[in-house]
């Protein structure tokens, strides 16, 4: 699939205020600074579409982008960061959990994981929560340009191994970089196939 058209539609502070639509929707979530907004810009070929920052906590609302007039990408605030808390291990907000639980046209949640680190408890907790609520999700391992391929593979294997503690089946996953554009085609193929199944 090619993205010919990507338009910012709306920032919403809560799920009830999100655009009313039946179009399929894919939401991006993960720890602050993991690269959610950068990934959206990479797949849409528009470095200015979603706001990015080297400081965590940039995205603060539920941001809808309409793609090819036929589906939505949603950029969500990160979890695991708070300007006010001393600890950075804060959970995800009611804004995020309500959106995920109640948004009727949400097809899948795309959970971004930093490929450089060992499994982080807040990522595992978030995935566990999705599983408990039976919300479909895929994983996107980010920032793979920052290390060698062997290291990336090792870290992903460790993460998936850790998931096996709770999961019988492992999710679909993508290996990505906003710098090299790795993962772009595979991810867009996944969206294309999933959208076709929705019709
Ligand atoms: P919040 O909105 O704060 O939750 O962060 P986010 O997950 O949207 O992260 P964002 O896309 O703003 O990126 C955070 C920082 O990481 C920025 O400085 C990006 O340039 C950098 N970054 C994101 N993806 C990549 C990547 O694939 N490779 C490299 N080298 N840097 C990246
Ligand atoms: Mg962001």
Q: How are the SSEs placed, and which strands pair?
A:
Layout lengths: L5 E7 L12 E6 L5 H9 L17 E6 L3 E5 L18 H9 L3 E9 L6 H12 L4 E6 L6 H15 L9 E3 L8 H15 L1
Bound molecules: guanosine-5'-triphosphate and magnesium ion.
The site of guanosine-5'-triphosphate has 24 residues, from helix 1.
Number of E strands:
7
- Overall pLDDT metric: 92
Structural class: alpha/beta
> CATH superfamily membership, which one?
P-loop containing nucleotide triphosphate hydrolases
Would you list the SSEs in sequence order as H and E? EEHEEHEHEHEH
Output the CATH class name.
Alpha Beta
Structure ligands: guanosine-5'-triphosphate, magnesium ion
Strand composition percent:
15-25%
Major sheet: arrangement of strands: 1-3-4-2-5-6-7
Q: Helix count, per DSSP?
A: 5
Helicity, as a percent range: 25-40%
Low-confidence runs of at least 5 consecutive residues: 84-90
CATH topology: Rossmann fold
End-to-end C-alpha gap:
16 Å
Major β-sheet profile: 7 strands, mixed
Name the shape in a single word. Answer: globular
Structural account:
- The chain is an alpha/beta fold.
- The protein has one domain (6-198): 3-Layer(aba) Sandwich (Rossmann fold), CATH 3.40.50.300.
- Helix content is 30%, strand content 21%.
- It has a seven-stranded mixed beta sheet, with helices on both faces.
- Strand 5 (106-114), helix 3 and strand 6 form a beta-alpha-beta unit.
- The radius of gyration is 16 Å and the shape is globular.
- The two termini are 16 Å apart.
- Mean pLDDT is 92; it is low at 84-90.
- The site of guanosine-5'-triphosphate has 24 residues, from helix 1.
- Magnesium ion (MG) binds at residues 36-37, 58-59, 75.
């Amino acid at each position: 699939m090619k993205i010919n058209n990507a338009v910012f539609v709306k920032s919403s502070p809560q799920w009830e205020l999100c655009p009313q639509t039946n179009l399929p929707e894919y939401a991006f979530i993960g720890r602050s600074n993991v690269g959610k907004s950068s990934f959206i810009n990479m797949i849409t070929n528009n470095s200015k579409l979603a706001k990015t920052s080297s400081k965590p906590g940039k995205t603060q609302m539920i941001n809808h982008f309409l793609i090819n007039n036929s589906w939505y990408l949603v950029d969500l605030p990160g979890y695991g960061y708070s300007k006010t808390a001393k600890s950075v291990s804060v959970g995800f907000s009611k804004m995020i959990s309500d959106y995920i639980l109640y948004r009727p046209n949400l097809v899948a949640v795309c959970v971004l994981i930093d490929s450089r680190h060992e499994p982080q408890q807040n990522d595992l907790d978030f995935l566990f929560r999705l599983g408990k609520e039976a919300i479909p999700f895929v994983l996107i391992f980010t920032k793979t340009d920052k290390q060698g391929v062997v290291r990336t593979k090792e870290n992903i294997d460790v993460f998936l191994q850790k998931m096996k503690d709770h999961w019988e089946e492992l999710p679909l996953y993508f290996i990505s970089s906003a710098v090299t554009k790795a993962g772009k085609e595979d991810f867009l193929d996944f969206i294309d196939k999933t959208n076709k199944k929705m019709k």
